[in-house]
Amino acid sequence: MRKNHVRLNCGITMPLIGLGTYSFPNDRNITELAIHNALQIGYRHFDTEKIYGSEPAVGKALNDAMFDGVVEREDIFLTSKLWGSDHHDPVSALKRTLQNLGMEYLDMYLVHWPIKLKPWVNYPVPNEDDFENLDFEVTWAGMEKCLQMGLCRSIGVSNFSSKKIHWLLDFASTPPAVNQVEMHPMWRQEKLRETCGDHKIHVSAYSPLGGPGNAWGSTAVVHNPIIQSIAFKHKATPAQVALQWGLSRGSSVIVKSFNEERMKENMASFDLKLSEEDILEIQKLEQIKIMRGEFLVNETTSPYKTIGDLWDDEI
């Protein structure tokens, strides 16, 4: 297996650090430049979604790089996601994503949230009457069809609790290869990691730094005195400590900075080795789920108080 990769339950390997491409506002030129810089630094795992608006820019940058001989398609791991308004037809949704990207297949296709929205809801903050009842057996059958048709190499989920993982496994012919969830030193997902581990489902961490710089994020992780103290001891940065903590737990991490120096810094987290003492100190940190009420749910109009109500009560 290649260095700094993880082998998934479907047999393929995935780079352990990925570059997320959500940004607001979305700027195509900035995103293309970020992908170009990321490839030069060594990133090979890229994470996008229709609702991010970044699929065309990601695809253009990657296709340009392949044309120029910078990278081969088989060296890239490309992830996108099924938006809530597309649960009725994952195959058609994935075909549109591939058209946006200018690609023949994805490496990973994830169900973004365990919710269904009405077909016309193509905006990130749904209103109360935008939600529909979810028949996830139909959704997952569509995801499995995407896999059978060769439109993707693997399928998975995002924001699924332990209870929802068990529920999915009751009827799935193909188990999810990945569960992408918020995870960082102050939201450690211990029960969920145990559940996924029992079923050989890889846990991938979004917001592994707590989302600093985003409207919904927080600097609580990178500004935490314990994290900063560990960073000082190792002559590293707080971001590197947080990322290496996630990597040391067996998870992959999806980082989002488009700043070239921070991209280099994040990739260098592979070189940091945390001691058992460091891990124990991090284990003592207060748990704070930073993504409560994040951009997906308008808390004044949603039938859920927060996005966490979709699954937090089950963790």
From TrEMBL:
<dbReference type="InterPro" id="IPR018170">
    <property type="entry name" value="Aldo/ket_reductase_CS"/>
</dbReference>
<dbReference type="GO" id="GO:0016491">
    <property type="term" value="F:oxidoreductase activity"/>
</dbReference>
<feature type="binding site">
    <location>
        <position position="112"/>
    </location>
    <ligand>
        <name>substrate</name>
    </ligand>
</feature>
<comment type="similarity">
    <text>Belongs to the aldo/keto reductase family.</text>
</comment>
<dbReference type="InterPro" id="IPR023210">
    <property type="entry name" value="NADP_OxRdtase_dom"/>
</dbReference>
<dbReference type="GO" id="GO:0009821">
    <property type="term" value="P:alkaloid biosynthetic process"/>
</dbReference>
<dbReference type="Pfam" id="PF00248">
    <property type="entry name" value="Aldo_ket_red"/>
</dbReference>
<protein>
    <recommendedName>
        <fullName>NADP-dependent oxidoreductase domain-containing protein</fullName>
    </recommendedName>
</protein>
<dbReference type="InterPro" id="IPR020471">
    <property type="entry name" value="AKR"/>
</dbReference>
<feature type="site" description="Lowers pKa of active site Tyr">
    <location>
        <position position="81"/>
    </location>
</feature>
<feature type="domain" description="NADP-dependent oxidoreductase">
    <location>
        <begin position="17"/>
        <end position="285"/>
    </location>
</feature>
<feature type="active site" description="Proton donor">
    <location>
        <position position="52"/>
    </location>
</feature>
<keyword id="KW-0521">NADP</keyword>
<dbReference type="InterPro" id="IPR036812">
    <property type="entry name" value="NAD(P)_OxRdtase_dom_sf"/>
</dbReference>
